[in-house]
Amino acid sequence: MSGPRYVRIPWLMVRHELRLLASLWLWARRRTHGTVGGGTAFGYVRGQGAMMFGFAFVCVIETVMMSVLLRNWPTVHHVVLVLDVYTIVVVIGLHAASVVRPHVLDPVGGTLRIRRAVHVDLRIPLERIASVRRELRTAQERTEGELDLAVGAQTSVTLELTEPVTHAAFFGRRHEVRVVRFHADAPGELVRAVDQAREGYAVP
Questions:
Q1: Distance between CA atoms of 28 and 15, rounded to whole angstroms?
Q2: pLDDT, tens digit, for every residue of 87-102?
């Protein structure tokens, strides 16, 4: 591994945490990211809210239990307490990021922006969409040239492209994808909206 890569990975981690904190701020103010300018937002968190808050609740219980168990070791107690509280913030931040960073259809700009919290932000030109359909699928094994963004272990919309787009993974590795599967709370509405929007960008 080269020197720049050692520098890049910590920076990516820091950027990830900063985006989570920014998402908490936006969530508290009931605002969304990337929806200014006439784009239509489509949420995808309906299937994960209960699970995320359940996980956060378990983390809170663990924090209380560890505080009791480590009360006679104050140094260890303080370190574990900081880590536990930070874990809770990250869990809530991940849910907040999913709420404030929805999918965005921008007919004027000619793009469909598919997102998953702060981990995925993929812009697909409307003219590259060969077909879009509502399709409920459970999580599948990773296949070359395909990108699955499951929520609650399932996807509800499938996009097939005329030519690939580049997806950058969390640590910067790039993949060319021609099929994108993702979840939307209202998949039928999203499919209809994309079909209508791409009429003006259809290849003759």
A1: 20
A2: 888 889 999 999 999 9
Q: Identify the bridge partners of residue 179 per DSSP, sorted by sequence position.
A: 146, 160
> What are the C-alpha distances in Å from 87 to residues 63, 96, 97, 101, 123?
10, 14, 15, 21, 30
Strands 129-138 and 146-149: unpaired
Q: How many helices and strands, by DSSP H and E, does the chain display?
A: 4, 8
- What tokens were used for 162? 């005329």
In whole angstroms, give the CA distance from residue 85 to residue 88.
Answer: 5
Among the listed residues 186, 180, 123, the one whose alpha carbon sits nearest the alpha carbon of residue 150: 180
Query: Per the structure block, which two tokens stand in for 9?
Result: 């990975």
Residue 172 φ/ψ region, left for φ over 0, alpha for ψ in the -120 to 50 degree band, beta for the rest = left
Identify the sign of the CA torsion 85, 59, 95, 10.
positive
- Give the ranges where the chain is alpha helix by DSSP (H): 3-28, 49-69, 74-100, 187-198
| pTM, two decimal places | 0.83
Q: State the residue for tokens 């409920």.
A: 136
**How many CA atoms lie less than 13 Å away from 69 in the CB half-sphere?**
9
Per-residue pLDDT tens over the stretch 27-81: 999 999 888 777 899 999 987 777 777 888 888 888 888 888 888 888 888 888 8
Are 65 and 80 spatial neighbours (Cβ–Cβ below 8 Å)? no
